[in-house]
Amino acid sequence: MTQPIAILLVEDNIDDVDVLRRYIRRAAGSFRVEIAYNGADALEKARVHPFDVVLVDQHLPDLPGEKLIARLREVVPELPAVMLTGHGDERLAVEVMKAGAYDYLRKDDLEPQVLLRTLHNVLERARLEAEVRRANERLLEWAIRDGLTGLYNHRHFQELLRTEFARALRSGRPLACLLLDLDHFKQVNDTYGHPFGDEVLKMLARTLQAEARKGDVIARYGGEEFVLALPDTDAGGAQTLAERICQRVAAEPFVHDGHTTPVTVSIGVSSTADPRVRSERELVKLADGALYSAKRQGRNRVCLADEPDGALGPITTPPPLQVPRAEMRAQVRRLFVDSLLQVLELAESGADHRDHSRRVADLATQFGRVLGMNEDELDVLQTAALLHDIGRVGISDTVWLKPGPLSDEERAKVDQHAAMGEQVLRRADFLERERRAIRHHHERWDGGGHPDGLAGEAIPLAARVIAICDGFEAMTAPRAWRGAFSIDEAMRTLVQGAGTVYDPELVQRFFEVVRQAQRTEERR
């Protein structure tokens, strides 16, 4: 049942009160009217009771109407106000509107229809303004929060860390940093799939929130890495918290969707008491070095930056072998890929395409295992499959998500997305093999594809694998203009394209992937 519109009428003239009440009763709709005969009474009622709109007489016994409106806005900022004016007060009423009133009504011209129309317009404006405020609040949250875990994101953490570091310097009080990494997380994703891995990340986020204090800053740093800034905490206190987190995570195997897997974390600890810390950046670097020490010592442990095994060395002249180049390169690669995936996930936010890239990557990883790829080849294949549509960020949704046939110009734009994806990764020399797979995943076995018209085995193997997985996933997922293909229908379409669109031998091997998936589904 619709709640009546609550009106606070602030009017000291009893005759005007009776007239306004009569007009409101004659108006269409359901209204509840409460009377305040002076400004003090109105402020008290507004503090205690919720109202949808307030009608304020311009001349009250204890304070002018315009001042009451200003006071009401301090008490209930979102409460819309309408000024009631006497004859000849119109110019003053306009000035009052500039001070905060939504509208004004001249008592001499007042009629039920005019009153109802004004109330409707004011309430509609208030509703729209509330929607704008909520939208702005959501945008602010999206700008500073990680979409998966709800924790602060990397960029906002850096801003908060700068603030906390400056405060620690001014006050002389300690500040500590924890950098955490989930152990063997890639294996979790490869074994159980990315949706399962996402639930593990959310579980760890909840654990960190439960263990941390209210004033601690918690963020997802990137991928499976998390970071905490701990104000007023020395290295000993930070170590105690880190060990508590480490023990709690290890003691609670993760259970989701019928699967159970042990989860552990490695944690690096640093603090401003370390003489090497001269900036917030060095504080995180030392925690990062300690984290790598925890990894090298066997994982599932805490290392302090000021321990010999956990030290990074002087920041200005780090020992050349303190952080192995391969590990540093792997970290940069992981952070870069995670950043691109966040961009791609935003682009794939439409209901038809959400998680498309992750599903293609899961299929491609399973296919790579069937083909006997080694771990390095599987890693390249999985990354390329995750990013195979990264070039779509340069194509508008009106074209990419168009439900009907594309024009020649639109088709040309879509056909360029593979080449555009390779361009996005051009400066990332550590993704050279992934770039080739992404550029050529829309080539055809017969040479009729794009962007370069490669044919047969001149097309990189990873690109040929992704082409089949991409086609299969697209066919078996529903779209706005059609339902999902059955698995048999999708496989028949792949077979029809074998030797022209797809590598014929790989199409035959893909049957093994589908059969494995069906057997897994039957066992559940």
Could you characterize the architecture of this molecule?
- Helices cover 53% and strands 12% of the residues.
- With 524 residues, the protein is of the alpha/beta class.
- Strand 4 (81-85), helix 4 (90-98) and strand 5 (103-106) form a beta-alpha-beta unit.
- Helix 1 packs across helix 5 (112-144).
Please list the strands of the largest sheet in the order they lie side by side: 2-1-3-4-5
Q: Percent range for helical residues? A: 40-55%
Subunit arrangement of the protein: single chain
Record field, number of beta strands: 12
Return Rg in Å. 32 Å
Largest sheet: 5 strands, parallel
Percent of sequence in beta strands: 5-15%
Indicate the structural class: alpha/beta
**What is the general shape?**
extended
Number of helices: 20
Q: Roughly what is the average pLDDT, rounded to an integer?
A: 83
Distance between the termini: 45 Å
What ranges have pLDDT less than 50 throughout 5 or more consecutive residues? 308-325, 349-354
List the helices and strands and how they pair.
Layout: E1 5-10, H1 14-26, E2 31-36, H2 39-48, E3 53-57, H3 65-75, E4 81-85, H4 90-98, E5 103-106, H5 112-144, H6 154-171, E6 175-182, H7 185-192, H8 194-211, E7 217-222, E8 225-231, H9 235-251, E9 254-256, E10 259-261, E11 265-271, H10 280-296, E12 302-304, H11 325-347, H12 356-370, H13 375-386, H14 397-400, H15 408-415, H16 417-424, H17 432-439, H18 461-476, H19 487-497, H20 504-523
In brief:
This protein is α/β, with parallel strands linked by helices. The protein has helices spanning 14-26, 39-48, 65-75, 90-98, 112-144, 154-171, 185-192, 194-211, 235-251, 280-296, 325-347, 356-370, 375-386, 397-400, 408-415, 417-424, 432-439, 461-476, 487-497, 504-523; strands at 5-10, 31-36, 53-57, 81-85, 103-106, 175-182, 217-222, 225-231, 254-256, 259-261, 265-271, 302-304.
